[in-house]
């Protein structure tokens, strides 16, 4: 069995078992969404960084793809996910932790006193 036969065989098996866009079933997707919500919600409660809250909100939206095989829904969910990832990226740079701001303010006060 060469590499080309192996790839074509795997593709046929994958298409027969999972006709959707995900390489795993609904229960696996649901469990990963629950784990990600718990993880990011906990990290947000501890660190209070906005991107963690955005990442806690984003995974449940991907569950909408199981509702219908409509291409409009598929692209809408993709656009929403892209906007949320972009918002998380922007919030990472815009929303600095308060400790960093306080440290910068205290450093500037020390330099002014000298």
Outline the secondary-structure elements.
Layout: H1 3-17, H2 26-47, H3 50-62, H4 71-94, H5 98-113
Helix pairs in contact: 2-3, 3-4
Could you give a short description of this structure?
This protein is mainly α and 114 residues long. Helices cover 79% and strands 0% of the residues.
Structure description:
By secondary structure, the chain is mainly alpha-helical. Helices cover 79% and strands 0% of the residues. It contains 5 helices and no strands. The chain has helices spanning 3-17, 26-47, 50-62, 71-94, 98-113. It is elongated. It starts with a helix and ends with a helix.
Can you tag this structure with a few keywords?
mainly alpha, single chain, 5 helices, 114 residues
Q: Helix content range of the residues, please?
A: over 70%
- What is the mean pLDDT? 78
N→C terminal distance? 76 Å
Q: Count helical runs.
A: 5
Tell the overall outline.
Answer: elongated
Strand content: under 5%
Whole-number radius of gyration? Answer: 22 Å
Low-confidence stretches: 13-18
Give a count of the beta strands, DSSP E runs of length 2 or more: 0
How would a textbook summarize the main sheet? none
Topology as a string of helices (H) and strands (E) = HHHHH
Structural class: mainly alpha
